[in-house]
Design a protein that fits this description.
Elements: E1 12-18, H1 23-27, H2 31-40, E2 44-50, E3 65-68, H3 73-81, E4 85-88, H4 94-97, H5 102-108, E5 114-116, H6 120-125, E6 133-134, H7 138-150, H8 152-169
Parallel strand pairs: 1-2, 1-4, 2-3, 4-5, 5-6
Helix pairs in contact: 2-7, 5-8, 7-8
């Protein structure tokens, strides 16, 4: 079991991949939880791949925020692989219920566990507590992410289960 952080620096990285400014609203679904977690856990970092306008209150934890510019897909996956927890927050809406589960799939193939909003596609894909975690309220986001931060073995287990799930249920055929 790989129960250690993915980098030798001892930090735990929560990653958010953002492709456009439209993701600012989605991120707000978990922003208060992330802020609280960063305030209480100096060894935790929020790694933002792409663009994201954080609420001004995040200034107080800016030393715990790592920003990585958008890149090609291979580089994106390499960066994602260096992180410990993937988050996929989505604002509840009919539009978002129709979005794919790509953020979960990308993390799963790298054995990175995900915490996702319970949109239709994530509910169809993620088995809560086994192949990932689902969170809708700020308290649920905080509880799910905190449980993965505090329990590296659980992180590794869920990452492995997600990988196996994707390997067996998502094929080119």
């Amino acid at each position: 079991i790989n129960a250690k952080p993915r980098r030798p620096d001892g930090l735990t990285r929560i990653v958010y991949g953002s492709g456009s400014a439209s993701h600012d609203t989605d991120f707000r679904q978990c922003s208060d939880a992330i802020l609280d977690i960063l305030r209480k856990n100096y060894h935790v970092r929020l790694t933002i791949i792409g663009t994201l306008n954080l609420p001004p209150v995040f200034k107080e934890v800016e030393t715990q925020i790592e920003r990585v510019p958008p890149s090609d897909y291979a580089t994106y996956l390499a960066r994602l692989a260096k992180c410990d927890i993937n988050i996929a927050p989505l604002e509840p809406s009919v539009f978002n219920d129709a979005k794919s589960n790509i953020k979960y799939l990308e993390a799963a193939i790298l054995r990175v566990p995900s915490v996702c909003s319970p949109t239709q596609e994530f509910r169809n894909t993620v088995t809560h507590g086994e192949t990932g975690l689902l969170a809708s309220s700020m308290e649920e986001w905080k509880e799910c992410i905190s449980s993965l931060i505090s329990d590296p073995a659980r992180r590794a287990y869920i990452g492995r289960q997600a990988f196996e799930h994707v390997l067996h249920h998502y094929t080119p055929q």
